[in-house]
Amino acid sequence: MTTTSPGVRDFTKDQLVRMARLFAHEAGVARTIERTGDERKRHQLTKTPHLEVWVMTWPPGATTDWHDHGKAAGAMVVVEGELIDRQWRGGSEHWTELGPGDEGSVAAGTPHNLTNVGDGYAVTIHAYAPGLTEMTPYTWEDGQPVAIDATS
Question: Where does Fe cation bind (predicted)?
């Protein structure tokens, strides 16, 4: 007898991108979240013990600041707008410009910063596996992200 739940438990980067694309193509998903104010907003579309999918709106200039997703890997698809994803990988910063239909991904534990660089609101769909149970904030010091110790 098994005591675990059936279904997919681990997702590859490509599978996370496909999941985000699936929700991005869902009619009306971009309208499930309001586009008001000057702060980023998010709304959870689905959640299992092994996967979360969110829709987010980004006013012009909105940013996540540097952070990682702990043990969760992530992928996103841009529905509307223009964003830049800055990631710290292999000891250096990597920039990716993203527009409507573009996708991005971030490995578990990788510091990154996502910013709306367009003149209007941006809308993105994000898939995370496993779910987001931890996030580490970072500060930028001496040309690199440094984890902020929550215990200090």
Answer: 67, 69, 112
d(CA 110, CA 19): 20
Nearest alpha carbon to residue 88 among 133, 150, 142: 142
Residues at the annotated binding site for Fe cation? 67, 69, 112
Q: What residues does each domain of the chain span?
A: 13-139
Q: List residues forming the annotated binding site.
A: 67, 69, 112
Residues 6 or more apart whose Cβ sits within 8 Å of residue 59: 35, 37, 38, 39, 40, 116, 121
Contact 78, 146 (CB under 8 A): no
Domain 13-139, CATH homologous superfamily name and number: Jelly Rolls (2.60.120.10)
Q: Report pLDDT digits (tens) over 107-140.
A: 999 999 999 999 999 999 999 999 888 899 999 9
Query: pTM of the predicted model, to two decimals?
Result: 0.88
Residue partners of 151: CB distance under 8 A and separation at least 6:
none
Query: DSSP letter at 94?
Result: E
Identify whether the C-beta of residue 121 lies closer than 8 Å to the C-beta of residue 78: no
Read off the pLDDT of residues 12-24 as tens digits, 9 standing for 90 and up.
Answer: 999 999 999 999 9
